Amino acid sequence: MGLLIVVIVIVVIQFVRPALNQNGQILASDMTKVYTMPDSVKAIFETSCYDCHSNNTRYPWHASIQPVGWWLASHIKNGKADLNFSEFGHYSKRRQLSKLKSIASSVEDGTMPLPAYTLMHKNARLSTEEKMLILNWTKKTQDSHALKIK
Amino acid sequence: MVIVLAALTVLQDDFKYTLNDDYRNCSPQEDRQSHFCKKVLPVVLNLSLFTIYLNTMKTILFSITVSTLFVAACNNDSPKDQASEKPSSDSTVQAGIKDRAATTGTSIDGLLNDYMRVKNALTKDNDKDAAAAGNAMAKTFASFDKTSLTAEQAKMYNDIEEDAKEHAQHIGSNAGNIKHQREHFETLSQEMYELVKTFGAGQKVYYTNCPMYNDNKGANWLSETKEIRNPYLGQSMPTCGSVKEELN
Questions:
Q1: Are B101 and B69 contained in the same domain?
Q2: With an 8 Å Cβ cutoff, is B183 touching chain A?
């Protein structure tokens, strides 16, 4: 009896789907357009970060299954609220610099990309060289855009 | 046996800040217990364990007991310091800030008050209090009265608020991760400095620098006292720093 209830619940929740985060375009406010960025760095951001931190998520097949889909949707919602590469150009300069700093520190200490994400997406894992590329790029960009305090 | 020695070696790495005595103002004020725990005990332990290793199986029990004692003794440092420290500076901050009437239009007293709470919590390595204060500060930002700001003040304030509020929120949601709280506190301090420059603090505020934080890149903070109490290094080096500027 209990098992039947569980099965019914699982079937019912399949019909409750979150909206998909897909836009299909690279906006002018995308971070790759705001700063000078070598293709190698751009590729890393797009592969390892954009699924949660942009307006364009590449969904895997298992995203159609609930509750996995809802779990992914919440990751994406939180990710975009903290940092959205697609809208980066709309942030104030101050906020842009703070985000660069956060990107560098999260990549450096390995909290980003999320371990839960790289578990499923092996190609999103950052090698040591890729980490260095990101860290060097963020440092260079921060330095050339630093705010001057009067 | 090897694992215990390895563990002890790793524990010793945590104390690297206190072993750098180069900066003239930053000689660590270690009491005898800290000195014993951090410098003498590890060496003595490692040597004695190694010599005993050459003997019997009792070594395993012995080394577990000894390393537990070591960890217990050395982890009791911070709670003792916290308990004996009087929170008198917090009440001074409250009194000082609330006594003044806001004579020049909008004042940032509330924000400065919350900021000092975060700062003081970090000096005591208290991530939970820092988180509580961070959340309070985010609320203060949200309820800040912008109606009597001049156009120029509003521009400056809005620019800062957008980012500073987020740092306060992140400090608020990172109890348990003081390292991360301190990263956000660094940028927040810069932004509070700019706010104080624009609006005035209404009390003496000391813009202080810590040269060693973040691999010697250094960072600044605002303090209500001239006395140095370092929020970036906390109890590991509380007096490291020097006042760069006095603000009103």
A1: no
A2: yes
